[in-house]
Amino acid sequence: MGRDALAATLELRDHAMTHALIAAAAAATLFRVVPLACEGDRLVVAGAGVLRLAAGASCAAVTPGRAVAIALDADNRATPQKLTPDALPAAKIPRAAYVLAPAAAADADETQLVTSTIDVTVPPRTPPGDDVYISTERSSWSPSEVRMDRVDARHFRLVLQLHRGARVAFRVTRGSFGTTERNAARALPAAHVALGEPDAHVVVVVAAWGDID
Amino acid sequence: MRNAVAFIAAACAVAVPCAASARASAVLDGGTIVFFSDTLALVARDGATLSLSDGTRARGDAVYVDLKSDRVVIAGHARLARGTASAAADAIALDLRSERVDLLDAASGVSRTTRALGAPAAAEFDAARFAFPDVDDRNAFIKSKHAAITPHADVRFSPAAFPTSVGGVPVPSYLYTYATGAGFAASSLSGATFDQPYGLWGSPTSLTALHARWDDGPGAALALQQQIVSGDDAYVSASIDAPVRGYAVRSFTAYKRLGTRYTASADGSATIYGSTEHAGLTAAFGLAGGALDYRHASSGFSTFDASLRTPDRPLFGGATWRLKGIVGFDSLRGGLLTQLPDARRYATVWRHGLDLQVASPLIHAPLKATLSSTFGAQRTWYAFPHHFDSLSASASASRPLLRNVTLFAGYQGQWSSDVFPNAQAIFYPTPATPVLTPDGTPYYGYTAFSGARTFRSQNVDLQFTPNRGGSTAFRLSVIHTADFPQYNGYGRPQWEARADAKFRPFPNVGIDVGRVYDFAWGGTRWQPRWSFAITP
Known about the structure:
The complex is a heterodimer of chains A (213) and B (536). By secondary structure, chain A is mainly β. Chain A has helices at residues 3-9, 19-27, and strands at 30-33, 35-39, 42-45, 49-52, 68-72, 78-81, 88-89, 98-100, 113-121, 133-136, 146-147, 149-150, 155-163, 167-173, 181-182, 192-195, 200-205, 208-209. With 536 residues, chain B is mostly beta strands. In chain B, a hairpin with a 4-residue loop joins strand 25 (370-382) and strand 26.
């Protein structure tokens, strides 16, 4: 990013930033953080601790609870910046940058959308033309909430976009509650869980349907 | 019908006090509140305040409530007060279900106290306590200004704006249930093309909800459903489904797990035309199983079945077989065999039967094709010169045509014969006058019907998924049925063509829309239908 462009994008509301500071920020790596508070020269970052602001930087562009980018100078002092997509997660901030830090950093990056794949194998006696759905707590367990894509003669797949850290309980149906999956004992199985983790994968083998023994 | 109404009334009478007893233990207010259904995260901004049932009040620049763990973080100019005591910090972390309060001061570190807000003591900095999600408000499932939280049960938003709200107009109030009882999946409502629940009252063990529904035939409908659950082990659900056109349906369903082997269930429904009830018991013996089922209709007809099935046993090459034996009876007041002059002698007819099922494994054929098939044979003998035979077969096949295009084909057939030795003509007489279809056309082919039926259907689907691992898919389908007897207006349409599109116009909302045409059915050239669903 060029110096002029960077200067234009910086939130310079109530303070002056020196050319040296702009140059340093342009060369620095950006980190995406969720600030909890910003007072004086201290910036409290969600889950990770307290950073010290660089000279000339202010809290004007910082809104608690709203993600912002920071750049660290040679002394590991933070300068708030406008958020960019290439900003690294807060977990990548060097430990030495914190003036006050917890024993272990928490991974608070829940803005990331990750794909969670659900693969379902249906029993042989599933009617060939029937659609297969998942029913989740997100829709108060509507039995036809999301239609799965057919993969082959006995397999269906659904790719969910979930926030990182999400936990979605689901069951497999053929579109109505009467066709909800059953376990080998022909009882309602406990709900399966799709997790919001990168490349999460859940494999479900349906033993029987509610209407087909 | 009276029984169904009485049951629904009783269920509601039980549920409303249950719901009323589950008071909100936390109330969150803010200029903006965003809610994410997959992470169960609530974030309030612009003058956020939190009120707890014990009188604790909190405010800050932003407040985060993690409904999964009942954890709260107050960020920016955080202040906590209870009675005359108060505390201030740069950030405050507390729990909805415990007294612990952590205060984070950027200069002095972390101190810990309780909700009574006594003198804080220095404490270890626990990162997880101060985790605040990095969320994008545009992806929120619900936007609101007021949220009343009942931990591990529900959140009532007032108002509630959804990504799908027409013109962004919010509904005045919306109850989002996240209670984990599996029985909340149970519904006594029949399937509908569109069903949008609207929670009225809730608790960790009950939910009363209105359902805005639309289905082919009856059209728009409003339904009221009451659910009561006990963990994953039991539930009861009762409902009234009242379409704008047509007649109301009252129904219930109940389930109880009896240990690890047995389950008991009951269900029923009632309309202006009568009612049906069913009670059942299943048992599992290893991979084998058994079931008892009793059904009764207000017409006086009832059936009973006791069945035992073997587990799926290997046959050859990965194929499996399974045998089921059934004993039961059919009963009708006034006699079952009404064609006979002494029908009253046959008010109850016992029967027994065998059902053999064979299933192939998933066969991987050349050209990346797959094939799966099943075959079935069933015979039922009656305590009267009468038996019923049935043969069935089904097959599914798939073959990728291009990287993102796959062809699917399916076949399903059933051939049955209802045989009365030396009395076939009595039970299946040739009609003296031609049978008329609903549009008045004579159906002469019916004269060939003497108890042997055929049901056959073939379907071909072409599925296009533009990006693998994405949520967009398009599908074209053609379904052909060739049944006997089959005539316009009765039975299944002979041809059906449909197109479905599934896509996500926004990260937090998905659309599944379909257009269906039924051909050569009901005396019309075609009958179009829509299917439409909004997904989270």
